[in-house]
Amino acid sequence: QVQLVESGGGLAQDGGSLRLSCATSGRTFSMYHMGWFRQAPGKEREFVARISRSGGVTFYADSVKGRFTISRDNAKNTVYLQMNSLKPEDTAVYYCAAASGYYPDSGYWTRSTTYDYWGQGTQVTVSS
Length: 128
Fold this sequence. Notes:
The chain has 128 residues and is mainly beta.
């Protein structure tokens, strides 16, 4: 069992930055691929970013590519999402997730069903 706890959400201005953190329990953090998803009011949960177990491979949704950066520190059992050049349309609840399996097709990483464990979410609000 893996427990995930997100933090770092809050209010930002259009063009501003926020850094989300997701702390995990247990000693097996490095065995999990990690992802970030978000869900805006009235919309389905959508993929944001994914990082491999070692941190050497990352993958982003087109909507955040070039503005967001996912990273991880396996010594601290933590994954991060640095969000720059924020836009009002980035407003959502952001969730981190852990996946134990490996899928060579990048399309699998965009699906919420690929991930085994989820955090409770942290609200990000971007004002215009």
